[in-house]
Automatic annotation (TrEMBL), chain A:
Belongs to the TRAFAC class TrmE-Era-EngA-EngB-Septin-like GTPase superfamily. TrmE GTPase family. This is tRNA modification GTPase MnmE. One of its GO terms (biological process) is tRNA wobble uridine modification. It comes from Pectinatus cerevisiiphilus. Keywords: Cytoplasm, GTP-binding, Hydrolase, Magnesium, Metal-binding, Nucleotide-binding, Potassium, tRNA processing. The lineage of its organism: Bacteria, Bacillati, Bacillota, Negativicutes, Selenomonadales. The gene is mnmE.
TrEMBL record, chain B:
It is found in: Cytoplasm. InterPro entries: FAD/NAD-bd_sf (IPR036188), GIDA_C_N (IPR049312), MnmG (IPR004416), MnmG-rel (IPR002218), MnmG-rel_CS (IPR020595), MnmG_C (IPR026904), MnmG_C_subdom (IPR047001), MnmG_C_subdom_sf (IPR044920). PANTHER family: GLUCOSE INHIBITED DIVISION PROTEIN A (PTHR11806), PROTEIN MTO1 HOMOLOG, MITOCHONDRIAL (PTHR11806:SF0). The gene is mnmG. It comes from the Bacteria. This is tRNA uridine 5-carboxymethylaminomethyl modification enzyme MnmG. It comes from Pectinatus cerevisiiphilus. The keyword tRNA processing applies. FAD binds at G13, A14, G15, H16, A17, G18. Its cofactor is FAD.
């Protein structure tokens, strides 16, 4: 468990994700102004540090390393103690939507800010005497609620590949730590000599692993490629109409991206800030004549690839054999069942779908009358933010926490390497190894000191 | 009812915990009685004849800095000293000494008997008397009662002790002593929760029947070493230990007879420690190891008994006879005392406060193996703290509670009262998160002041501490002030003294950080004052490891806010609705004294700590 310094600088996205045309990132702490100055270029070239409180400054956020412009923003400067937290605060207003917010936040973290814990701004406000006693209960409620939510997100995404990778790295570290510790605590026992060169090679391997994870986090599909989404259903059920509805919903941005397969086109749809990458829109679009020919076979492969499946059924008609096959395919996929044509007389046996796909939410829409689209969008958002979407390759939505912890762990390993290189005694090298091990444990919620001692006794025969 | 006497504090047991508790309480000025089952077994070492080692040696140094006795007594009586881990960093170097067991005991007995305010008595305490949740006295097996304000339980392995050798078991304490059976029942009656642990010891063999030519000699260090900051011994006669190994024949005998091992046949119920497994456990758990090392250690200068370290066993005596003979140098061995296992009652330390006082029984303290630890040093350290805190209680002062960042003693007690223990607890340096700050060489700098505050540090000790501290600061300031430039003269001077040239201007203090430069070399080149090795060591370590030390100090400071945040004694965790049920249950059971301690309870999450922080703030504003 790691506790943070009281006055370090924290940052977080302050507006609800995926809502609103404007997004706000709040930065609070003694160094917040200098920190934002590192990535912010005011239109008039003056640094925020030279400006007075309560200024709204227009400018651009760019990555100081690549010089890439991330977004146009307005920074609001609030100097201590006249801010919500009674600390120096900068609020960065940028365009809404998931990408600019996340990129700006990652930049801040890269340049020294720490990701705020759930409810931490309010906690600081309270501890700095900003809000009164009656609000304290509310603060505790927030911390609990947000922690529960982020825990859900975290655990939801920590199955499979990602967490097992972390565990492997931790196990390797634990082995090294235990070996060093055994040699330190039991110098007269027969603990094998440790070959520091070998240890360095192994640390190097672990560092490569961590770096691969960091870069995969950076290019994670959700950030740069969107959530792979499949719209499946029998011909003429309304797939292309649904796609169009989604495309034409308020702030939709459409981009044509040549797909990975020869004949398929994928499209980005920004649904309230969530980038959906819809598979084979070409196939869906060719509907009018060849129309909606995506048969069950293709549907199968799409469902396998997709992070999110929208399964479309025709509410006005009785179930067909194709419908049953699709139901079979999505049964375990946690799909969203969309029943189209709610404006017509309903003939579909919905109870059968309900029974077969008990985990799936069922939504009624009418692509003609535009009914139910809003509910569908809400459902998609819910799935993404509540962590119900499981990714195929172990990418993760909630990756800023994890990215930060991975980077710190990498840094500790780097320190350990330097120490070994300088012939610093092992008991000091272990400090860095342990820090890395603990940081990785933070990601998977598993930091128990006793593990090291268990490992020592299980691996080494030690006794009087 | 016969009241035989009245004391401020009564100590039950005069082992390593008991003597420290008794001496500390008496030295602070409390009228104290130290009770023992047998006057001839004060400060008995029933197991290995040694004191110290990694983390354990640290404990002895700390205890010494606070004004305890173990370090002084070991320096007076030990017959071999070695500094371990000398090739490793300064934080894990540790002193270990071979004791002359009987001389150690005599010397400690003498110290206790001559201590003002301390009465040493041979008697068996059978009952702890409690009225309205408060200790009022103890009752002896012969019926008489001693009244008192505080009791320190230091009953070692004697509580309902049971000896096991092969198929034979009998009630008793170590080496043929009586067990304290009724006391165990009395503890249960006053509401103390007990656990059952097990430990063991190897055979003692006759030195005359060993062939040392088949073993490797293990001499002590040439340089004389001392545990106590008050000891000035510079020379000492030393006795060697001997190294030999088990082999496949030994293992075969053990394997063939494994069904007769008490741990296999179900005789042993108690939980044994993983770090000192019996030889039969070793060959089962590590079947691939083709040999295990054994140290043959003298039990003293006036005896032929030798301790076979590494060979702890509770196998039947005939098996012990057989397998010992397979070991090189022991072909003709004669056993003087066989190895045995011992099971005993101890209390669950989660019932204790960090002062080592029981949470529900006022005036009842416990220390040492009766708290589920193992080792003389762990016992002594707790005994000292229990003695100090019982005395503080009698005098109406705040208890002395050492933080994890201040002392191994703090780590030890915090672990016990916060996490509890599932096996006899042994101190290890890897248990201390601020290891680099808790060095054995700076124990006096860390703790002498605290010992002084509770009235345990004598004027002589305090003066010595102040002088050393003054010298360290003086020389450091001198080194930091003295700047040298890369002039030709300076570089000539450096070269003359075998030092590397400098390229930019630097202070002597920064120069000291370089790997190849020590204070002595600098002193020669720049005519610096001549200072003692101890002072040199402090200055060099602080300079060389400055970066790491700063890192750890920052970590400490980050935790400090939580450590200093006291939890109100009457806090009702069930009323804090946002805590998770698991946390509420743990917090109510352990009742941490600080937010820092709360954070270390397994199952209490960082979010819970945030909630507690807000709750405390709210609580504080309400009560102001």
């Amino acid at each position: 468990m790691v506790y943070k310094e009281k006055n370090d600088t924290i940052a977080a996205i302050a507006t609800p994700l995926g809502e609103g045309g404007i997004g706000v990132i709040r930065v609070s702490g003694a160094d917040s102004i200098q920190m934002v100055d590192k990535i912010f270029l005011a239109a008039n070239k003056r640094a925020l540090a030279d400006r007075r409180s309560y200024r709204a400054v227009y400018g651009k956020i760019s990555d100081p390393k690549t010089k890439n412009i991330i977004d146009e923003v307005i920074c609001i400067l609030m100097r201590e103690p006249h801010s919500y937290t009674k600390e120096n605060v900068v609020e960065i207003q940028c365009h809404g939507g998931i990408m600019p917010l996340r990129k700006i936040l990652s930049l801040l973290l890269e340049w020294g800010a720490r990701l705020a814990e759930p409810g931490e701004f309010t906690k600081r406000a309270f501890l700095n005497g900003r809000i009164d006693l009656a609000q304290a209960q509310a603060v505790m409620d927030i911390i609990k609620a947000k922690t529960d939510a982020s825990l859900r997100v975290a655990t939801g995404h920590l199955s499979g590949y990602f967490s097992s990778n972390i565990r492997q790295i931790r196990d390797a570290l634990l082995e090294m730590i235990a070996h060093y510790e055994a040699a330190i605590d039991f110098p007269e026992e027969e603990v094998d000599n440790i070959d520091n060169i070998q240890v360095m090679e192994r640390i190097e391997e672990l560092k490569v692993k961590i770096n691969t994870m960091i870069s995969s986090a950076k290019t994670g599909r959700i950030l740069n490629e969107g959530l792979v989404t499949a719209i499946v259903g029998k011909p003429n059920v309304g797939k292309s109409s649904l796609l169009n509805r989604l495309l034409h919903s308020d702030r939709a941005i459409v981009t044509d991206v040549p797909g990975t397969t020869r004949d398929s086109i994928e499209e980005y749809v920004d649904v309230d800030g969530i980038p959906l990458r819809i598979i084979d829109t070409a196939g869906i679009r060719q509907t009018d004549d060849e129309v909606e020919k995506i048969g069950v076979d293709k549907a199968r492969s799409y469902i396998e690839r997709a992070d999110l499946v929208l399964a479309l059924f025709d509410g006005a008609k009785a179930m067909t054999a194709e419908d049953t096959k699709i139901i079979e395919l999505i049964r375990k996929k946690n799909a969203v069942v969309v029943i189209n044509k709610s404006d017509l007389v309903q003939n579909l046996d919905e109870s059968y779908i309900r029974k077969q796909c008990s985990d799936s939410k069922i939504i009624h829409i009418s692509t003609i009358q535009e009914e139910g689209i809003k509910e569908l969008v809400e459902t998609i958002k819910e799935k993404v933010y509540a962590g119900n979407v499981v990714y195929n390759e172990g990418e993760f939505v909630n990756n800023i926490y994890q990215l930060e912890a991975l980077k710190k762990a990498g840094q500790h390993l780097e320190d350990a390497m330097k120490s070994l290189d300088n012939d610093i005694p092992e008991d000091l090298v272990v400090i860095d190894l342990r820090s890395a091990w603990e940081k990785l444990g933070d990601i998977i919620g598993d930091t128990v000191n006793e593990d090291i001692i268990d490992e020592i006794f299980s691996r080494f025969c030690i006794g009087k | 009812m016969f009241i035989a006497g009245d004391y401020d504090i009564i100590i039950i047991g005069a082992g390593h915990a008991g003597v420290e508790a008794g001496l500390a309480a008496a030295r602070i000025g409390c009228k104290t009685m130290l009770t023992t089952l047998n006057m001839d077994n004060i400060a008995l070492m029933p197991c290995n004849p040694s004191v110290g080692g990694p983390a354990k040696g640290h404990l002895v140094r700390e205890l010494d800095a606070l004004g305890g006795e173990m370090g002084v007594n070991a320096d007076k009586t030990c017959i071999q000293f070695r500094m371990l881990n000398t090739s490793k960093g300064p934080a894990v170097q540790a002193l270990r000494a071979q004791a002359d067991k009987k001389v150690y005991q005599f010397s400690m007995k003498e110290t206790c008997e001559n201590q003002d305010n301390l009465d040493v008595k041979q008697l068996l305490v059978e009952k702890i008397l409690v009225e309205n949740g408060k200790v009022t006295g103890v009752q002896i097996e012969t019926g008489e009662i001693y009244t008192c304000r505080c009791v320190v339980l230091a009953s070692g392995t004697y509580l309902r002790g049971r000896i096991i050798i092969g198929e034979k078991t009998y009630e008793g304490g170590p080496i043929g002593q009586r067990a304290a059976v009724a006391l165990s029942q009395s503890l249960k009656e006053i509401g103390v929760k007990l656990m059952r642990f097990k430990t063991g010891t190897p055979a003692r063999v006759d030195k005359r029947t060993l062939d040392f030519t088949k073993m490797q000699i293990q001499p002590g260090d040439d340089e004389a070493r001392n545990f106590s900051f008050m000891s000035d011994e510079r020379t000492r006669d030393q006795v060697p230990c001997w190294l030999t190994y088990t082999n496949e024949r030994t293992h075969k005998i053990l394997r063939d007879n494994i069904d007769r091992a008490p741990m296999a046949n179900g005789i042993i119920e108690g939980v044994g420690p993983r770090y000192c497994p019996s030889i039969e456990t070793k060959i089962i758990r590590f079947p691939d190891k083709d040999r295990h090392q054994l140290f043959i250690e003298p039990e003293g200068l006036h005896t032929n008994e030798m301790y076979v370290q590494g060979m702890s066993t509770s196998m039947p005596v005939d098996v012990q006879f057989e397998f010992l003979k397979t070991i090189p140098g022991m072909e003709n061995v004669k056993i003087m005392r066989p190895g045995y296992a011992i099971e005993y009652d101890c209390l669950d330390p989660l019932q204790l406060q960090p002062s080592l006082e029981h949470k529900n029984i006022e005036g009842f303290f416990s220390a040492g193996q009766s708290n589920g630890t193992s080792g003389y040093e762990e016992a002594a350290a707790q005994g000292l703290m229990a003695g100090i805190n019982a005395a503080m209680k009698v005098k109406g002062h705040e208890p002395l509670i050492l933080k994890r960042s201040e002392a191994y003693i703090g780590v030890l007690i915090d672990d016990l009262v916060t996490k509890g223990t599932q096996e006899p607890y042994r101190m290890m340096t890897s248990r201390a998160e601020y290891r680099l700050l808790l060095r054995q060489d700076n124990a006096d700098m860390r703790l002498t002041e605290k010992g002084r505050q509770v009235g345990l540090v004598s004027d002589a000790r305090y003066d010595r501490y102040l002088a050393k501290k003054g010298k360290i600061n003086e020389i450091k300031a001198l080194l930091k002030d003295k700047k040298i430039n890369p002039s030709r003269e300076i570089n000539e001077l450096l070269k003359e003294n075998g030092l590397e040239e400098i390229k930019s201007s630097t202070t002597l203090y920064d120069l000291l950080k370089r790997k190849d430069i020590g204070y002595r070399e600098l002193a020669r080149a720049f005519s610096l004052p001549n200072i003692t090795n101890e002072v040199v060591k402090q200055i060099e370590t602080d300079a060389v490891y400055e970066g790491y030390i700063n890192k750890q100090e920052e970590q400490v400071q980050r935790m400090e806010k939580l450590e200093n945040r006291r939890m109100p004694a009457d806090i009702d965790y069930t009323k804090i609705s946002n805590l998770r049920d698991e946390s509420i249950e743990k917090l109510n059971k352990i009742r941490p004294i600080s937010l820092g301690q709360a954070a270390r309870i397994s199952g209490v999450s960082p979010a819970d700590i945030s909630i507690l922080l807000i709750y405390l703030e709210q609580y504080g504003r309400r009560t102001v």
